Amino acid sequence: MRIIALLLLVTPGVIAVIGIKLIRDALFNVFHPMFFHVAIQGIIGVLFVVGGIAFIGGFILHRDRKRNLTKGRFKKK
């Protein structure tokens, strides 16, 4: 079970890192041929970063709610 949880956290983390690389390359005008424009590359990079961080945060929040580790602020009603 722990290896599955590790893979669930590593995969979105890698996607977020790729998103950071795409943003950096868009800022320094390094164009990747699979994208049509540098701006599209930057937008996809932002989506990758936000999506990866949101998935990891949601996973940790779900786990903490299940183990009853959250304060009253994040408890389900």
How would you describe this protein?
It contains 2 helices and no strands. The radius of gyration is 16 Å and the shape is elongated. The chain has one domain. Helices cover 71% and strands 0% of the residues. It is mainly alpha-helical and 77 residues long. It has helices spanning 2-27, 38-66.
Structure, briefly:
The protein is an all-alpha fold and 77 residues long. It contains 2 helices and no strands.
Overall average residue pLDDT: 90
- Helix tally? 2
The ordered string of helix (H) and strand (E) elements is: HH
Largest sheet: none
Give me the count of strands: 0
Which assembly state applies to the chains in this document?
single chain
Based on CA inertia axes, which overall geometry fits? elongated
Could you give the topology of this structure?
Elements: H1 2-27, H2 38-66
Q: What are the key terms here?
A:
77 residues, mainly alpha, 71% helix, Uncharacterised_YqzF
